[in-house]
Amino acid sequence: MQVSSSMIKETKMTAFTGVILAGGQGSRMGGLDKGLLELQGKPLYQHVLQRLMPQVNIVLISANRNIDRYQASGCQVFTDSMPDYPGPLAGMLSGLQHSKTEWVAFCACDTPWLPEDFVARLWQQRGAAPAVWVRSTQRDHPALALVNRSLADDLEAWLLR
């Protein structure tokens, strides 16, 4: 998809918080922390951070383990506000709650080749929707999303039900 120059300009005029979702248990990885697995000599989350930083005003990291390793990035790190690893939506809720901007771009920690125009692409596709996420031909990828902070209360209510 091509992003128009006017859309890139509009994106630069809007404040975004980026949140790297690294709070999982790693249950499919034998308990390993996916964000800390290395690719080309550096942790996966650092590849995501490098790609996300130029697209947003600030990057936060959602992590529930190895907090000190993530804090070494210089980013603010927060844990889920809900107990027992309820999944990536809990990290997204905490990200919305920690954000000081209206819009939050979420990225999974294991997406090292995040497009350099990821936020602009989602911004262009959002229309009037309060949330938009990546969809491939096979499935939705809700951990790659642009979400308006106004959805925090509804998301929390849904997670608590």
TrEMBL record:
Entry-linked InterPro entries: MobA-like_NTP_Trfase (IPR025877), Molybde_CF_guanTrfase (IPR013482), Nucleotide-diphossugar_trans (IPR029044)
Pfam families assigned: NTP_transf_3
Statement: the UniProt record of this protein carries the keyword Manganese: no
MF term (GO), any: metal ion binding
UniProt KW keywords: Cytoplasm, GTP-binding, Magnesium, Metal-binding, Molybdenum cofactor biosynthesis, Nucleotide-binding, Transferase
Domain MobA-like NTP transferase: 18-159
CDD domains to which the protein is assigned, alphabetical: MobA
Statement: the UniProt record of this protein carries the keyword Metal-binding: yes
Family annotation (NCBIfam families): molyb_mobA
GO BP terms, alphabetized: bis(molybdopterin guanine dinucleotide)molybdenum biosynthetic process
Protein name per UniProt: MobA-like NTP transferase domain-containing protein
